[in-house]
Amino acid sequence: MERYSCKQLKSLVASGVAKDVTYANERSDIPESYTQIGYAAGIYGCNGMLLKGESGQLYAVTGRTSAIYIF
Fold first, then answer.
1. pLDDT per residue over 19-47, tens digit each?
2. Mean per-residue pLDDT, 12-18
3. Pairing of strands 18-20, 2-4
4. Disulfide engineering: 49 pairs with which of 5, 35, 56, 61, CB 3.0-4.6 Å?
5. 12 and 6 in contact (C-beta within 8 Å)?
6. Cβ within 8 Å of residue 26, ≥6 positions away
7. What's the CA gap between 58 and 55, in Å, rounded?
């Protein structure tokens, strides 16, 4: 698992490489099975995640929201 900065995760979303799921409310918001391939951590713990679906699609949680605990 690789460590990213929140800025890197946001740039992946802005460039269209990853889909933003920061404000997702349930696991079904990602329509396929996935694995965590990266994270962003700071002083207060985990600040973001990078997930990869079985189709190869990337999903990013770019902030410290409840989506971190859902996925």
1. 999 999 999 889 999 999 999 998 989 99
2. 97
3. unpaired
4. 61
5. no
6. 70
7. 9
What residue type is assigned to position 43 of the chain?
Answer: I
One-letter identity of residue 51: L
Task: Say whether pLDDT at 71 is over 90.
Answer: no
Residues 6+ apart with CB under 8 A from 5: 40
Q: What percent of the chain has pLDDT over 90?
A: 77
Cα distance between residue 54 and residue 67, in whole Å:
19
Residue 11 corresponds to which amino acid?
S
Average pLDDT, the chain: 94
Count of residues making up the chain: 71
